[in-house]
Amino acid sequence: MGLRLSPWGTENVVEYKRLFKYFGIKPFSEVLKELSRITEPHMLMRRGVVFGHRDFDKVITALKRNEKFSILTGIMPSGRMHFGHKMVIDQVIYYQQLGAEIFIVIADAEAYAVRKLDRGEIVNLAINDYLANYLALGLSTRNLHVYFQTNYERDYYRLIQLFSRKVTMSELKAIYGEELDPGKLIAVLTQMADILHPQLESFGGFNTVLVPVGPDQDPHLRLARDVADRFSSELGLKRPASTYHKFLMGLDGGKMSSSRPESFIALTEPLESAGSKIMKSLTGGRPTAEEQRKMGGVPEKCPVFEMLTYHLVQSDEELERIYWDCKSGRMLCGECKLMAREKLLRFLEEHQEKLGRARGVASSIANIPGF
Ligand code: SF4
Q: How far is the CA of 184 from the centre of ligand 1 (A)?
């Protein structure tokens, strides 16, 4: 099939529609209407950034029946939190406001064993950067559980051990590739426990667990669904639901990534640097102003337009206006970037003001590993 999704790989997944065909992910548009009958869908859903799902119907049913449901999301502190990471937590906050119980796993075991990161740095980034940013963005401490993989509850570790009986090396290799070492093996089983443990009575007994992810994380979800099936009679586990969002384009045209500073804007980015980065960003503009006036720009290929769509413009009407101003050639990239810069700096200024207090709260809600 020529398409392998790997949580540790570097593939740039651009052909999202192929995921529907090869991996059975369903278009989110199928459930959008039903969701909008119950509540206003998040702007990332309305705009097609959240493009796919598995079993989102379970969330809709839970919402209709006013039943409890939970969200599982992870922090992989392998670099500063940037706008490419923000989409996940924006969705999590949306679900929390709809009444969901939130579980946030800090993947410190995986960061240490698989990504070979320094443990002190993992804790520092997870708490003072990611978690603090989450809180400053509006995550509430109510209905919130934050834990480190290396410092959690007994039943969670029991799951990891039980799961090891019913997965095989050959299926893991088929999903994750041939280069499996002990660190990766444990990381995979630990991820299974992360995804499935909210269903246990000792963690709240949530029948519906939704995991919002980028498509590169789908191998974990597929395996978790299989593991749930294998433990359905023994532990009463059910398949988790998931949604899939597009990756945010980097300002240099690739995927926004912590490893290329010019590609991302961190949520803690100094304003001057943030402003300069967006002004230097690639665009979907034409080589000359004259051509652009004649032919219009290509917002579909423009990182600046993606920043506006994913993060900086809340109103759908305003976004549509910008889109057509670009398409028709009425607006040139210089003017557009200045507008995006102003919105970005206003957002960052307000956000960074909240960070100091959020850092104090963040360090008090996670049980930091003792050694
Ligand atoms: S006008 Fe704006 S949206 Fe259009 S290509 Fe230029 S920067 Fe991108």
A: 42
Q: Which of 251, 313, 328, 333 to mutate to test the pocket of ligand 1 (most atoms within 8 A of CB)?
A: 333
298 C-alpha to ligand 1 centroid (Å): 7
Average pLDDT, the chain: 93
Strands 101-106 and 209-213, how do they pair?
A: unpaired
On whether the CB atoms of residues 314 and 280 are closer than 8 A, the answer is no
> Relative to the CA of 298, which ligand 1 atom is closest?
5
Distance 46 CA to ligand 1 centre (A): 21
Domains of the chain: 19-247 (3.40.50.620), 261-357 (1.10.240.10)
pLDDT along the chain (371 residues), means of 10: 44 63 88 97 95 96 97 94 97 98 97 93 96 98 97 97 95 83 93 98 97 92 96 98 95 89 96 98 96 96 96 96 96 98 98 96 92 83
331 Cβ below 6 A of ligand 1: yes
Ligand 1, atom 7, residue with closest C-alpha: 333
Ligand 1 centroid distance, CA of 282 (Å) = 9
Residue showing tokens 């304003």: 271
Ligand 1 site, residue 308, Cβ cutoff 6 A: no
Contacts 24+ apart (CB under 8 A), 232-235: 234/162, 235/159, 235/162, 235/199, 235/200
CA 46, 315, 134, 278 dihedral sign is positive
Give me ligand 1 centre to Cα 212, in Å. Answer: 29
Render pLDDT for 30-52 as a digit per residue (tens, 0 to 9): 999 999 999 999 999 999 999 99
Residue pair 311/245 in contact (Cβ under 8 Å)? The answer is no
Distance separating alpha carbons of residues 127 and 302, to the nearest angstrom: 33
Give the model's pLDDT for residue 174: 81
